[in-house]
Amino acid sequence: xxxxxxxxxxxxxxxxxxxxxxxxxxxxxxxxxxxxxxxxxxxxxxxxxxxxxxxxxxxxxxxxxxxxxxxxxxxxxxxxxxxxxxxxxxxxxxxxxxxxxxxxxxxxxxxxxxxxxxxxxxxxxxxxxxxxxxxxxxxxxxxxxxxxxxxxxxxxxxxxxxxxxxxxxxxxxxxxxxxxxxxxxxxxxxxxxxxxxxxxxxxxxxxxxxxxxxxxxxxxxxxxxxxxxxxxxxxxxxxxxxxxxxxxxxxxxxxxxxxxxxxxxxxxxxxxxxxxxxxxxxxxxxxxxxxxxxxxxxxxxxxxxxxxxxxxxxxxxxxxxxxxxxxxxxxxxxxxxxxxxxxxxxxxxx
Length: 350
Ligand code: NAD
Ligand code: UDP
Known about the structure:
By secondary structure, this protein is of the alpha/beta class. It has a single domain, classed as Rossmann fold (3-Layer(aba) Sandwich). The chain is 41% helix and 17% strand. Helix 1 links the parallel strand 1 and strand 2. Helix 1 packs across helix 8. The longest helix has 21 residues. It is globular. The N and C termini lie far apart (44 Å). It binds nicotinamide-adenine-dinucleotide (NAD) and uridine-5'-diphosphate (UDP).
C-alpha cells in the first residue's frame, strides 16, 4: 500500500513527503525535475531515514507513468506536479495548459485503469480571482486571472466531472494560500530558479545579499498600511494538511474543496518587519507601482478544513520567517551547494 506523490521533489512536495513518511505511509515519488533537484529527494530520505522509489518521469509520458502503476501497488495519489509561475503562464499559455492539464488527464486515466480513485489535488487560492470580500470561503465565486489560474480551475472542473461519471472517486481539492517557510532542520526549503517572483524568497535573497533591495508592489491598497495583504502559511502546516486530506479521502467518496490557510492576513510591510526581527537583518526596500493583476487583500476562512479534516495551521509568522531564514542562510545556493562549480561562490557567501 503506497501513496504516489507527483511533484514530490518540489517545495511543497518534499515537505509533504516528510509528513507522510513520518505518519507511517509508504511512498512512491514522481517528478520530472523541471523545477526541482533530486537533492531534495535525497534529503527527505536522509531526514526520515526511510527509503522509497523515485521516478524521474514526466506526467506527459503516459507510458512511463503507467509503468509506475504496474511496478507498485498505489492506493492513492497526492498530485502536486505542475508549473506555477503566473508571468510565465501568460507568456507561454500553451505550454502551461499542456503541462498542467494534459499531465492531470494522463494521471487520471492511468489511475482509472488501475482502479486507484483516491486523489488529493494541489489547487490554489488563485481560483478565487479578485475576491469580492475577505475572508474567502470555499463558496466564494471562482474565476481565473491568468492561464496558470485557469489550469487550476479547469482541473477542478475535470475532477468534478470525473466524480459525476464514477461515484467511487474520492477527491480533495486543496486550495493553498501563500506557503512560506521551510523545514525546521534547515535542509529543505524553497529553491526558486532565477529571480524569485514571490515575496518571502525575494526577501531572503535580499537578506543574504544576492539581491540589492526589495521592491514593494504598491502602497495604495485599501489595507491598514496600503501594502498588499496575504494569508501566509508555514509549508510544514500545509504539508500536514495533505496527511489529513488523505485520511479523509480513504473514508469517503465525492469531491470537496478546502482552503488551507491560517485565516490571518499580513501586509508586505508586516512581513518585512517580522523577517527583520527573526533574522536580525535589515531589508532595504523601495515602494514601486503595483504589480499588474495584483489584489489588495486575500486571506482564507479556514473553518471548513478544521471541521472536516481536523486540520488547523499551528505555526505563526515568527516561525515562518525564522525557518525561511535558516534555510536561506544554510543553503545560500539552494540545492546546488554540492556542485563543484558553485563551491567558490559558496565560500564567498559564507
Ligand atoms: P514546485 O515547482 O516546487 O513543485 C512542483 C513540482 O512539479 C516540481 O518539482 C516540478 O519539477 C514538477 N513538475 C512540473 N511539471 C511536471 C510534469 N509534467 N511531470 C512531472 N513533474 C512535473 O512548486 P510548489 O510550490 O511545490 O507547488 C506544488 C503545487 O502546488 C503546484 O501544483 C502549484 O501550482 C501548487 N501551488 C503552489 C503554491 C505556491 O505558492 N508555492 C500556491 C498554490 C498552489
Ligand atoms: N510583493 C512585493 N514584492 C515582491 C513580491 C511580492 O511587494 O517582490 C507583494 C505582492 O504584491 C503581494 C505580496 O507581496 O501583495 C505577496 O506576493 P506573492 O507573489 O508572494 O504572492 P501572491 O501575490 O501570488 O499571493
